[in-house]
Amino acid sequence: MMRGFALGSVTTVMAMMMALSAPAAQATEAAASVSANYDFFVGGFRIAEVGLEATATPTGYEAMSQVTTRGVLEVLLRGRSVSKAVGKRGAFGRLEPVGYAARYSSRTGEQKTRIGYEDSTPTRVTFDPVPDDISEHARARDQRGSLDPLSAAVAALLPATSADLCNRTIPIYDGKRRFDVIFLAPDPARFDDSAPKPKWDKPLTRCLGVYERISGFGAEAMQDEKYFPFDIWFEDSGNGIFRAVRLAGSTKLGFAIGNLRK
Questions:
Q1: Cα separation of 64 and 76, whole Å?
Q2: Shortest CA distance to 244 belongs to which of 204, 212, 208, 217?
Q3: How far is the first Cα of the chain from the last one, in angstroms, to the nearest whole number?
Q4: Mean pLDDT score, 195-205
Q5: In the chain, where does DSSP find H-type helix?
Q6: What ranges do the domains of the chain cover?
Q7: Whole-number pLDDT of residue 26
Q8: Quick one: which of 215, 212, 218 has its CA closest to 230?
């Protein structure tokens, strides 16, 4: 299971989970839309809500996401995150980000991030205010070909076949950190009762996910740990469309579970 997985990293992965509850855009020429909400628990306590709305067409896509702290975390932090992404569809439906904007606020202040793209590569990254650690952000060579977190969420719903469900890598850059989210074939040998299977009215497929740090995390964090595994369950709707139902793994704050609301 995951050890030391940061809360921000978990919510990023959860946003991608919600995209997977949408109809696959390549399955129809009409726009495919999703509106989904997840409840996030750590150590049995509800600490956050994550919501996503996304639409993909054969020529473009857009997505919006919100993260709101709840429970004890709301008392301590009162965190709010709102983000939006827009982009085009290239050859073979490939996503080509155009712009990404995010605003995060808490009791200690507010941070805005914007990313502009040219030829699917981040070329303009602006912050308000400018962070003190900007010299430690992800290297330019690592950013090439990466997606912002919301574009990555849209990309996650596209390979909606059983063969690709647990066989894909999504490169992500959030303006500071560059990381991959990888879905791998399940490994029954590592499954245990600490990650309980959701009670669901349809059969579920369990995959191994891996959050991999690439750059922009600081030397100490990279020396600490680079890979963070987690478990994820998918529902097969029967027509090539899958929905992510649960994500689970260990964090520094305790065991974390993200559940799709019915």
A1: 26
A2: 204
A3: 26
A4: 84
A5: 7-19, 71-76, 140-143, 149-157, 219-224
A6: 7-260
A7: 43
A8: 212
